[in-house]
Amino acid sequence: MAEYAATISWERGGSTFVNGDYTRTHAWEFDGGLTVAASASPHIVPLPHSKPENVDPEEAFVASLSSCHMLFFLSIAATRGYVVDHYRDSAVGYLEKDNDGKLAMTRVVLRPQAAYSGKKLPTAKQIESIHHQAHEHCFIANSVKTLVITDIVS
Questions:
Q1: Is the pTM for the entire model greater than 0.90?
Q2: Are residue 41 and residue 65 in the same domain, yes or no?
Q3: Does one domain contain both 67 and 142?
Q4: First vs last Cα of the chain: how many Å apart?
């Protein structure tokens, strides 16, 4: 078993706090020393109480699914002898009402693109197989009820 931790910090500052008059900006601190500026999404909490340039939880959710998928993809490709030169995913998550009428990330669409070099180049079918296996192994995707779709971009 492994444990993963993050420290989330927020301060009221000069706001009154009552009636929703407070900032939603905060910080995510990770064990390696990285601090990420975070905020509520401006789609959820209007300006000036949110900060669009900060990472919001919804973006982080999408990024964690995409990152996990990518890391397994790279590992599987390397094991199969393919040289991946670069990988990019323009992933999108959809926040909408679920079957119970609650707001939820109902689906995340991954749109990975990768470039390969070397003597052994994967076919489209082999790439699809690697993505399928990466999805099956991605423990973030296995941890959520959100539909995660891999829409491979050539």
A1: yes
A2: no
A3: yes
A4: 37
